[in-house]
Amino acid sequence: MADQIDEIIAGGGLVFKKTPQKEPDNGKVKTKARKKSYITGAHGSGSARQKAKYREQRANRSKKRR
């Protein structure tokens, strides 16, 4: 450990590199839950269909009041 410290001091210090830049998403969907077919329940999952039904009911409830 002491040798490494002496080497750093004598050699001019540490070299810090920049972190690699992340690539932009470009609008890509990262999770299945955000894809339209999953939100609407069109992919065949009973659970997703039921959730889509509840979302539609909730949306219609707010439309009725106006």
Could you walk me through the main structural features you see in this protein, from its secondary elements to its overall organization?
This protein has 66 residues and is mainly alpha-helical. It has three helices and no strands. It has helices at 2-11, 36-40, 46-64. The relative contact order is 0.07.
Beta-strand portion reads under 5%
- Report the span from N to C terminus: 73 Å
Mean pLDDT: 76
Contiguous helical run count: 3
Annotation keywords:
52% helix, mainly alpha, rod-shaped, 3 helices, 66 residues
Write the layout of secondary structure elements.
Layout: H1 2-11, H2 36-40, H3 46-64
Summed up, what is this model?
This protein has three helices and no strands. By secondary structure, the protein is mostly helical.
